[in-house]
Every structure is written in C-alpha cells, then in structure tokens.
Protein: [Ribosomal protein bS18]-alanine N-acetyltransferase
Amino acid sequence: MTTGLIVLQPDDAWQVAMLHAAAFPDPWSAAAFRDLLSESTSLGLGLEQHGALAGFILIQTVVGEADILSVATRPDLRRTGIASRLLHALLARLGERGVARITLDVAEDNPGARRLYESFGFSVDGRRPGYYTSGRDVPVAAILMSKSLSL
Structure:
C-alpha cells in the first residue's frame, strides 16, 4: 500500500467531507471542514493512497492543549494501520505548537478506537452518558481520554 502524509488545506475539504460521510452516520459538511482547515488553531493531516484520501485526523489547539475533533479511515482500509500512522504523525508535530496535553472523546461502543488510543498512552478521564446518538437505536456514552506530552 503506497501512502503519503499530507497537511490538509481548505481546498481538501470536499475529500475530507466525503471520507467523513463514508465513515460516520452524521457527516460534517465540506463547508464545516473548509472553515476548520482555514483556522490557524486547526491542523489536519491526511494519508493518501494512489492519489485519494485514505484517512485523516483533525485537531484544534487552544492555549497548550489540543483536542482531536475527528479521525476517519476509509471503511475498506480499516485495521491497516492508517489511524495509527496518522496519530503518530500528529503527536510528533504537537510540540511545534506548544501543546502539552491532548484530549479526545470516543464512543463507548468503539473498542477498536479505544484500544488504539490506549496503545498511544491515552488514559480515561471520564464519561458523558448518552453523548453519541446518530446511527444508533440507543445513545451511547462518550469516553473522555487525554494524554500529557513532554515538550
């Protein structure tokens, strides 16, 4: 599999939105991604395979902290290491932005993602009951996780 890491730009918003729609039942619009990717406080990284976006990670930073807003891998490429590679690349770049802590929330019914974050040293901080509702008959909790980074 040939993949290349790219820094996502506002012009990539339509590709990001298409991948997000394939990965989640409640997709964000291309306009929302364009706005986020235009912000100096945001950073989006993508992995391309044969010229197409195979996965992405998007964060927003505020005063020494980063929050992972979304991570998605093309459904047919899940469990091939794309999300792991994106997370590794992201963590390597956060020091440049003065980030000392990174946070995220993940659906309680997504054990694969939870294992991924735990393998990178994220720990559970709490739980938001009923946070995720889209595409589910019964809402599920968000698991809040974080990781301290050494600068």
The helical segments are 13-23, 30-38, 82-93, 111-119. The chain has four helices and seven strands. Residues 3-148 form a domain with the Aminopeptidase fold (CATH 3.40.630.30). Residues 82-93 form the longest helix (12 residues).
